[in-house]
Amino acid sequence: MDVIGLIRHIYAHNNGINDVNSQVLGNMQQIDSLATTPTRISGYLSNLQGGLGEQDASLSNLNQF
Question: Cα–Cα distances in Å, from 7 out to 12, 20, 21, 64?
Fold first, then answer.
C-alpha cells in the first residue's frame, strides 16, 4: 500500500469511528433525557398537588359565604 492509499484507509476507518461515536452520543443523550423523566414527573405532581390545595382553600372560602 502506498502512502496515499494508507491515508485513505485511515480516513475511511476514522469516519466509521466518528459515525459510531455520534450514535453513542445520541443514545447517551436519550438515556439522560429518560433518566430525568421521573424527576420532572415528580415536580409536575407536586405542582398539581399544590394547586389542589389552593382549590380546596378557595372552595372552603366560598362555603363560608
Answer: 9, 20, 21, 84
Q: Which amino acid is at 20?
A: V
Contacts of 1 (CB under 8 A, 6+ apart): 9
Residues 21-65: tens digit of each pLDDT: 999 999 999 998 888 888 888 888 888 888 777 777 777 777 776
Stated as kind and residue range, the H or E segment containing 54 is helix 3-64
CA angle at 17 for the pair 13 and 21, rounded to the nearest 5°: 170
